[in-house]
Prior knowledge:
This protein is α/β, with parallel strands linked by helices. The chain has helices at about 15-20, 25, 40-45, 60-80, 90-100, 120-125, and strands at about 5-10, 30-35, 50, 80-85, 105-110, 130-135, 145-150.
Amino acid sequence: MAGYRVGIVCSSGGHLAQLHCLDAWWSQHDRFWVTFDKPDAVSLLEGERVYWGHHPTNRNAKNALRNAWMALRLLHRERPDVLVSNGAGIAVPYFWIGKVLYGCKTVYVEVYDRIDSPTLTARLVRPVLDRMVIQWEEQRAFYPEAILFGGVL
């Protein structure tokens, strides 16, 4: 799997912590990150190629548009083969634009702490997913097509 151009798109905090734990995988690839300019992200991603998204994303139409415009420009420049995310809202424009305009493969990892219902982000990106990855067998009730990876934390 070495040699892919990978875009890793996620909110800071717990979302970033979970995807950062997959370093045995992402460290083998040419990659860039899209997240929020927060202290945890700055610290965890020191030395990585990072683009700072606009937040908050919840119920914020202005930032949704800003992130969509950023996704258009960034995906055109970076041309990733694969986009990976576990949410939250910042993933939506990247997955839709990446899939529809650039033919990117898309992989969504449902978050570790949501076993009773699907996340809003997963529901919004599901139509353009190539792979859904779950961390708990219980999540299969919502995603029968998913690949069970197990906990990443």
